[in-house]
Amino acid sequence: MWKFATEANGKAFIAGQWQAAASAATFPVTNPADGSVIANVPNMGAKETQDAIAAAHDAFPSWAATSSKDRAAILETWAQLLRDNAEDLGELMTAEQGKPLLEAIGEIMTSADYIDWFAEEAKHVHGETADAPSQNATVQISREPIGVVAAITPWNFPAAMVTRKVAPALAAGCPVILKPAEDTPLIALALAELAERAGLPAGVLNIVIGDRAQAAVISKTLMDSTDVEKLSFTGSTDVGKLLIGQSAKTVKKLALELGGNAPLIVLEDADVDVAVKGVLSAKFMNAGQMCVAPNRIYVHEKVYDEFAQKLTEAVKDIKVGDGLDPNTQMGPLINQKAVDKVQHQVDDAVAKGAEILCGGHVSQPGTLFFEPTVLKNATPEMEIKSQETFGPVAALFKFREEAEVITQANDTRYGLAAYVFGRDEAHAAEVAKQLQAGMVGINESMLIDEAIPFGGVKESGIGRENSHFGIEEYQEIKSTIIKKKSPHI
Ligand code: ADP
Predict the structure, then answer these.
(1) Of 427, 417, 411, nearest to 454 (Cα)?
(2) pTM of the full structure
């Protein structure tokens, strides 16, 4: 496993230094597969956060003034170091997060792709020039780095969520203070070590770590600071709303990627095998712990039984176990709270008439493993209809009328992802057009690519990550108005 987990025990990364908490307090990071302690990390708070803000603030002028080519070169080296260390990083991720090693290594490779993408974006920042007709002036419209950025990330994709924020911020010329999730801080620290090796100057990337209670203290310190201009957060809608409230004090700019409750619609003419494959990857990858995972699977009555049967057969074959076992296809959930939530949703659905086709309970390998589950006869009264599951449960709803299913699909305050499966692509596209979501997959369940703008509508968030919009989140538009020379002179 990545040597870092043991060698840098108890330290985080502030102002280019590996530092313990001022109080010397630590908290354990555990492996969700067996509960063993992998490392102890510092339990930091307001003081360390203020130090990180000061370091980032000091680093800002020279980082912003560094040529975009030089910033890009550091990012490219960082990406290469991720690839060179993908196996070790993957093992570390599996140990702290639980996902199968192949998925973990895949996430490291994706993270490297994100960094490379933004290394390129750094070199393609365009402004505009316009005429200001009433004033007889020229306007130069330029994009400038927004300033010091705070990033708060979740545990489900502990490397991809970090790089998707940090890389565009750095590319734009902004220093970052990152607070990774308390369940998975080790990958963030390992990424910082690689960034340091890639030549990132001191203070440009700072990592502050705290447990669940300290998360609120760290983020409040970030939100109250007039030296932090932007917050990029991925996590629950509840915490996102809290942060929106806190942002008012300093009018902080926000990029928020919050919860989802994705509908997946299998139309009457769908290729059932393609739809089953789509559900398998979108619902059971990362044990269903994805904000874009389909939460409500609406299947046309004509193909409902066939779909349910084929999906159940495939789901029964999913091998559950320790992510380090090469045969494992699905690992544990992240913690007991996650298991309790999934079990509660299944029990609620069964109590209201759902039938379990497979799974439904905690699984054999350990207390945090949940059996891959398929539920038939799901109805709108069930909690699984209105609340994000974040677990390996596919709930099948039956529909007859398309208009009715579109209304049902949109009957949520979330609007992150949606999926439509149907052979007639033009027709599927018509359905997709009516869905209130930031991203819609048509006969496609993978929505994650550095070129795809990622983000949601309604209460699923504000802003977009990846693509050229990703870097724009970390830029302000500045207008410089230059008076034209008078024709009389
Ligand atoms: P989840 O329930 O999936 O863990 P959260 O929204 O709780 O999602 O967590 C996402 C990130 O938000 C994590 O880094 C976590 O530490 C952080 N967080 C949790 N509570 C707060 C809070 N009160 N203020 C700011 N950040 C928080």
Answers:
(1) 417
(2) 0.97
